[in-house]
């Protein structure tokens, strides 16, 4: 939240005509990644605390919607970097879209896989901090953010490897259909006989 708020405040309170490509790029990334991290973290907290159900939130066409939101973020980045002052609406739009995307992606993950999502969001917060460092011209923020981002990504990879799963599977981006004969494993056959120890 701090990275997103700082990026927005830096842009809207910093005057006009002072944004080069790197500064505009960093501002957009800090705002959007920060918003995605906030909403994803809030949903993860709600699931782990039992406020919301730990079951994955899914609906038809969810991955398509996620893809459209991601494409909108990319379009907003190009539009904002091309003309930061005139594209200020793209910054606000991108921040809102990123927040919605963070909620949707975290929502389609079950409660048992939330630790992986948390480490992934921790990594995202690090990269948001790195972008904020470029916005504020602060080398310390850039370095610390890169360390947090890299360590979070490595930890997420290790956890997925330990579960013998890939990240897209954990995030619910892969829909694996059960084989047609899978129902045979659930079929109950035979007879049940009851006994009474006092008889």
UniProtKB/TrEMBL annotation:
NADP transhydrogenase beta-like domain location: 2-172
Statement: the UniProt record of this protein carries the keyword rRNA processing: no
InterPro entries in the cross-refs: PNTB-like
Keywords: Membrane, NAD, NADP, Translocase, Transmembrane, Transmembrane helix
A Pfam family matched in the record: PNTB
Entry EC number(s): 7.1.1.1
Principal EC category: translocase
Record GO biological process: NADPH regeneration
Catalytic activity, as annotated: NAD(+) + NADPH + H(+)(in) = NADH + NADP(+) + H(+)(out)
PANTHER family the UniProt entry points to: NAD(P) TRANSHYDROGENASE, PROTON-TRANSLOCATING NAD(P)(+) TRANSHYDROGENASE
Protein name stated in the entry: proton-translocating NAD(P)(+) transhydrogenase
Higher taxonomy: Eukaryota, Sar, Alveolata, Dinophyceae, Gonyaulacales
């Amino acid at each position: 939240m701090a990275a997103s708020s700082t990026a927005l405040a830096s842009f809207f309170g910093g005057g006009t005509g002072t944004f080069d490509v790197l500064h505009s790029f960093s501002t957009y990334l800090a705002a959007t990644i920060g918003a995605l991290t906030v909403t994803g973290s809030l949903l993860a907290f709600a699931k782990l605390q039992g406020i919301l159900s730990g079951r994955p939130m899914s609906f038809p066409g969810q991955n398509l919607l996620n893809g459209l939101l991601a494409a909108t973020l990319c379009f907003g980045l190009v539009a904002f970097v091309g003309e930061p002052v005139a594209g200020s609406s793209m910054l606000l739009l991108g921040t809102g879209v990123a927040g919605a995307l963070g909620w949707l992606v975290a929502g389609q993950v079950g409660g048992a896989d939330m630790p992986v999502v948390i480490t992934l969001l921790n990594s995202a917060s690090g990269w948001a901090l790195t972008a904020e460092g470029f916005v504020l011209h602060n080398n310390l923020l850039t370095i610390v953010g890169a360390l947090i981002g890299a360590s979070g990504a490595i930890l997420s990879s290790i956890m997925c490897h330990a579960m013998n799963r890939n990240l897209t599977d954990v995030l619910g981006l892969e829909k694996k259909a059960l084989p047609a004969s899978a129902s045979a494993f659930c079929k109950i056959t035979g007879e049940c006989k009851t006994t009474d120890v006092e008889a």
